[in-house]
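Regression check, iron/sulfur cluster case 665:
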Amino acid sequence: MSSLLELHNISMVFEQKSGLFGKATPIPAMVDVQLSFEPGEIVALVGESGCGKTTLGKVVTGLHKPTEGQLLYQGKDVWKMNKAEFSEYRRSVQLVQQDSYAALNPMRTIFQSLSDPILQHKLVRSRKEAYDRVCELLDTVGLTPPEQYIEKYPHQMSGGQRQRVLLARAISLKPKLIVADEPVSMIDVSLRMAILRLMSNLNKSLGIAFIYITHDLATARYIAQYGRMAVMYLGKIVEQGSVHDVLAAPKHPYLQALLSAVPVPNPRIAKAKRELPLKSLDMPSIMNPPSGCSFHPRCLYASQTCEQTAPSLMPYGNTIVSCHHVEKVPQWTIATVK
Amino acid sequence: MNENNIIEIRDLSIEFKLRSGTIRAVDHVSLDIPKGKVTALVGESGSGKSTLASAILNIVSAPGTIKNGSIFLNGEDILRYNANRLRHYRWSDVSMVFQAAQNALNPVMRIGEQMIETVLAHKKMGKPEIIEKASQLLDYVRLEPGRVLKAYPHELSGGMKQRVMIAFSLLLDPQLVILDEPTTALDVITQDYIFDILLKVHKEMNITMLLLSHDISVVARVADRIGVMYAGKIVELGETFEMFENAKHPYTAGLIQAAPSILDDVSENKSIKGSSPNLLNLPTGCAFHPRCEFSTDLCKLEQPRAISVGKDRLAACHLNEKGEMLA
Ligand SMILES: Nc1ncnc2c1ncn2[C@@H]1O[C@H](COP(=O)(O)OP(=O)(O)OP(=O)(O)O)[C@@H](O)[C@H]1O
Ligand SMILES: Nc1ncnc2c1ncn2[C@@H]1O[C@H](COP(=O)(O)OP(=O)(O)OP(=O)(O)O)[C@@H](O)[C@H]1O
Ligand code: SF4
Ligand code: SF4
Ligand SMILES: [Mg+2]
Ligand SMILES: [Mg+2]
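Current build output:
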């Protein structure tokens, strides 16, 4: 049996033009990514701002055509599908966009935004049925009572409320995979748990697979507790494995630094300057990535080899890591930061 | 007006008339924003943080209206400013990084052009000078000026746009910067870095900051003072350490308890029970009573007033009134 979705050596290189006649600069947002997703599984994707997570999400959902490599949906090459197959793939793989303003049409009420897709895909037959279904969807995502929200325009809702509307729209089409790009970043702690629980229930009861893109390691760990985690750095996957294994013993120096930076709800600890295990906080230019291992200018363990040769993902212990010196990197545990 | 305050908000109420009824998103709020400090407002989604902030810029969005109250900037009521004075006030006196930074950028203009336009709308300055200043600020927020100035918004990631907006907010050397959830789109390393920069800017340029966030852990690091909002009201206000170590309102205590600690198992975290209040149909008395473990009959009947519970400390909870009587 084939996986639900496979990325084979996918690269996504954007071009930025610097003027009408200026020459385009290539921006490699994803580099040679190899990943696969099984039906019903949850994969958390974490990494630094600008490292290519959204790009990966958009490639997976067919919004960007990769510049290299193959994307397979149920074994079929997405970019060689016929119209019917492509449309079925697009319905089955939904994206909850990071930017909830851009994702909702400002001129349309929540009812209009939510009823259109289900009417189009004939999941409901009449406006009346659509109304009931939209109410049900709003209810599912905790926008209750639905009457309070259904006639609102996006700008009349708070950030967290809009993000829930997007989740409602994604599930309305009964997809097989939802790519949720920072779906709870604007929601407070108590509602965040409710949304995560909702995603978890949708996963269990309807078997919807999720790619959960986030920078929040605590929620990644919660939502994907039985799933996998992939860590991205400058367009590449640098560590991957079961969430439990990855967090119990993070190996890649970047991941260790990331974990050390998680904020603590205690002002005395938070205000005392914590040293992160990094040589530099500066993020290298994506247009001009460092040679060899692209993490080397910031890595405490970098050697000459690291400056010259790029490491590749190799199994180490229970996870897969891309680091030349993985054996030498000290063990990191949650207790290390206190 | 106390001259140590840059902004004084007095008895401010903001209502939204909706088809299903009227909600009061900000309910009789009074708040001082002291000069040179970082004040933070925290509270659940929908508690009214962004609405309150929009009033400080006098840009409450329709159908919202300011029902009553005043907002003083160095003693002048900004709600009475004429259009001309308001234009200067926004960005040059007070600037804001909006919650959805993405939304504030013009999709068909390059970032550099937008920065130039913003500055020129407010003062005379040469383009090279503006570009130099913009580059320095972009550099502050860990972006490559060369690329970003030439980029259109859609060519930047969510976190990059958020950082562009932080740079934007500092462009005209404002006295007060309002940051509405400024780091929600950022990983923790970048967030750490941005807060370092903001604190540096705050100290060096003596800029006052108002930070809005639903995450009390984020605020712990930078804020000098914290105000906690619930259902449109400020229910507790005080100095950061005091608030964390000696909360006087059960909701504040709940927020601190519920904050996830370093990679705590989130499922075990003690989130505040019950759901956020329906603004169309607020509970009687103390709006928090259905979720409060200390609720008494009095709480269901009577709204607690905000009373002083220490130096520069306010709390609106009947428990404190009793405490005061005992003392
Ligand atoms: N359409 C585009 N044209 C040019 N460059 C782009 C485009 N989309 C993304 N990029 C660039 O690709 C890189 C990766 O962006 P992406 O949005 O995938 O990051 P991200 O990991 O989602 O970041 P964040 O956590 O901040 O949302 C960035 O440098 C961004 O500027
Ligand atoms: N333009 C508007 N029209 C109608 N209702 C609005 C409008 N703007 C805000 N509201 C309502 O006012 C209340 C307060 O919203 P506000 O955005 O101020 O909350 P918030 O504390 O910033 O929440 P979040 O953490 O989700 O950003 C919410 O119930 C919201 O639905
Ligand atoms: S390969 Fe070298 S530079 Fe890269 S993470 Fe490993 S030790 Fe650091
Ligand atoms: S006034 Fe009563 S219900 Fe409200 S927070 Fe205090 S004890 Fe709880
Ligand atoms: Mg993104
Ligand atoms: Mg808000």
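Comparison notes: Chain A touches chain B through 70 residues (CB under 8 Å). Residues A 14, 16, 27, 29, 47, 49-55, 98, 286; B 154-160, 185 surround adenosine-5'-triphosphate (ligand 1) (CB under 6 Å). No diff flagged against the previous build.
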